[in-house]
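Working notes for the structural subgroup meeting. M.R. asked for a predicted model of this chain before we commit to crystallization trials. I am recording the input and output together here so anyone reviewing the notebook later can reproduce the run.

Input as submitted:
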Amino acid sequence: MLKMRKFINRLLLAAMLATASLPALAAEVPLPVVTAESEAYEVVGRLKAEGLILHVDRAPSNEPVLAATLEIEAGGRTATAIFRQASGDYLIADAAWLEPLRQAGEHGLALTLIAGEDSDLLSGELIVAEAPAAAEASGGRLGLVLLATLLLVAIIVIGRRLRRLPGEGV
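Returned structure, recorded in token form:
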């Protein structure tokens, strides 16, 4: 009987820990992403807390383009991305320049890339999703609470049935 109680307690603890993290997952907003392509180059960027992080590669070979000059124009304002040798990417961390891009919506970007003697002009759209409204978030949490309650009831029912099994000794 003691083994069964330990099992049920561990199962209940695992269920509580699993359901405690679900509301945070339900409220997540997708990371804003921009892609820009030409015949020669591809650029993929993600807008994160530290700034706009961009990866540049050659389209035919997927070879990374390192130490190039990358300028991005958005809303009539231009910023130059800094190449980061350690990670092989480019970063724009100018908070004032990034502020309009953090607003929900589609933001047109014009990218000027100069890699050695080659240069290219690319364009892409940074799509920023709206954060879930408080009402939507609380509605999602209600569903998760109901799911957690259902899981808890199932564990209790299974535990009671297992306790009735003959032959379980200490």
